[in-house]
Amino acid sequence: MTTPHPRLSINQATLQRTTVREAIDAVTAAGIQAIGLWRQQVQDAGLDESARMIADSGLRYSTHCRGGWFTAEEGPVRVTALDDNRRAIDETAVLAAAGAEGSRAALVLVVGGLPEGSRDLVGARERVRDAVARLAPHAEAQGVQLALEPLHPMYASDRSVLSTLDQALDIAADFDPAVVGVTVDTIHLWWDPEVTRKIARAGREGRIASYQVCDWKTPLPADNLLARQYPGDGVIDFETMTRAVEATGYTGDVEVELLNQEIWDTPPAEVVRRTVEGFQRAVAPFLG
Amino acid sequence: MTTPHPRLSINQATLQRTTVREAIDAVTAAGIQAIGLWRQQVQDAGLDESARMIADSGLRYSTHCRGGWFTAEEGPVRVTALDDNRRAIDETAVLAAAGAEGSRAALVLVVGGLPEGSRDLVGARERVRDAVARLAPHAEAQGVQLALEPLHPMYASDRSVLSTLDQALDIAADFDPAVVGVTVDTIHLWWDPEVTRKIARAGREGRIASYQVCDWKTPLPADNLLARQYPGDGVIDFETMTRAVEATGYTGDVEVELLNQEIWDTPPAEVVRRTVEGFQRAVAPFLG
């Protein structure tokens, strides 16, 4: 069995059907050193119990997934969303503190799409900026970095009105890099003709909170949310993107987050094995 | 029945199952003044006969669809693709000459995706530039404008390694605007946070060969190629994009090209009626 790269982290979305316990066990059994959990599973297990399991495991905590979904106009939906993000910030702080040295208190933010019936992309993007401004003081107080994640433009209407790294960086620019950063995910950004320039900018501005890797392959599945492939199984040029991230001085964990029905239908140990192999072949050769 | 806007053109892809004769009849019966045909149907009817039908109809010819697919590496596949594009240029010249005053000899180019097994986006994009350079003299001799069309990034691997208007403009910049222009299609570009700046650039550089409108709605169908909706049925802000195109001084036809199985399963006369209505409501108010 391939020895996992020391910077490989498994995001729990890859192991969709696992509890926190099962995810931790699958990851540690393979010799992987880091993990990122999802809120629902953490809440199912309990935050304190999840933190205890992370501490006992000796794993680094790489990211907490996820907050965001705050493009609604002023009103109760927006208030609820912002409150929920404050709780997510709290969870991030607790879990990252429980992780081994090198853990990051980074909360990944998928900002949300257009509100129902709206065509106002510009307004929705302004509300993202506003939401970040409202959350930043709490994040700062908790020592948590908000990690704005631009999503592939095919999700622009229903999941993320942020589609490019420059958009995320333009919002982040108003804040301390320790408080607001960005998530660089290959599947969302690989098509961008300026992606290496934008990654360099993200690095120069000290904003890279997380580097996530998964692959793109067509035809996409009927549900395009589940289009993610093991690194190396698709067409993404991981060498160029990974070298660009490394060149910024990023030394953090590299997460694999695979939303894919076939992978979810595979036993976790096998998924972890395939992830380690794909990462070793497609990504590890380009890590510092 | 709504009177069609004088600048509305129907692209034959909207009436997928029609012959050239049927498409012309459906469009003229509704009082529409312009049409764009597809190569396969023109070849089925015969080029000279198609030109005769266009001339007899009194319609303007708005675009010829489509050329491109020239990202293959050097070799017989590439030679065949370039030869085929030269024939498409010839067809464009003949059909536009047969159209009424205001016709455009514009050949829409969908450039193609990554060659099988390749991860080299940069190389594929360079081969697009090379192909345009090889075709430009023939286009110029025939009085045809090559209309590079950036496609939505969800097609970056399998249909178009050009994803943004700036990429298309950067390639076009080496050539006379009368020979190489760009196609602005709302469904491909609406998500781009810089789309109005890029449209302004396209106008300033004299490159807008065609403006195409169709709408975006989620969830996308299982085959994302068929995701196009009647203008007004989705979330695209046609006001902003149309005003941006108008502000450049573009006075040409505005084409509706709908690839959508449900629309293809609807009788052509009804499709034309719905197109006229959608256009009138969502696009026409922002024209000139």
Major sheet description of chain A: 8 strands, parallel, barrel
**CATH architecture tag of chain A:** Alpha-Beta Barrel
Q: Which descriptor suits the 3D outline of chain A?
A: globular
Strand order of the largest sheet of chain A: 1-2-3-4-5-6-7-8
Helix segment tally of chain A:
11
Residues in β-strands, percent of chain A: 5-15%
Low-confidence stretches of chain A: none
* Radius of gyration from the alpha-carbon trace of chain A, in angstroms: 18 Å
Number of domains of chain A: 1
CATH class of chain A: Alpha Beta
What is the strand and helix layout of this fold?
The structure is a homodimer of 288-residue chains.
Chain A lengths: L7 E4 L8 H10 L4 E5 H7 L1 H11 L2 E9 L7 H23 L7 E5 L10 H22 L2 E4 L16 H8 L7 E6 H4 L5 H10 L3 E5 L25 H10 L6 E3 L4 H4 L3 H15 L6
Parallel strand pairs in A: 1-2, 1-8, 2-3, 3-4, 4-5, 5-6, 6-7, 7-8
Helix pairs in contact in A: 1-3, 2-3, 3-4, 4-5, 8-9
Detailed description of the structure:
The structure is a homodimer of 288-residue chains. By secondary structure, chain A is α/β, with parallel strands linked by helices. The first copy, chain A, has one domain (8-286): Alpha-Beta Barrel (TIM Barrel). Chain A has 11 helices and 8 strands. Chain A has helices at residues 20-29, 39-45, 47-57, 76-98, 121-142, 165-172, 186-189, 195-204, 238-247, 261-264, 268-282, and strands spanning 8-11, 34-38, 60-68, 106-110, 145-148, 180-185, 208-212, 254-256. In chain A, strands 1-2-3-4-5-6-7-8 form an 8-stranded parallel barrel, surrounded by 7 helices. In chain A, strand 4, helix 5 and strand 5 (145-148) form a beta-alpha-beta unit. The first copy, chain A, is globular, with a radius of gyration of 18 Å. The two termini of chain A are 23 Å apart. Chains A and B meet through helix 5 of A and helix 5 of B.
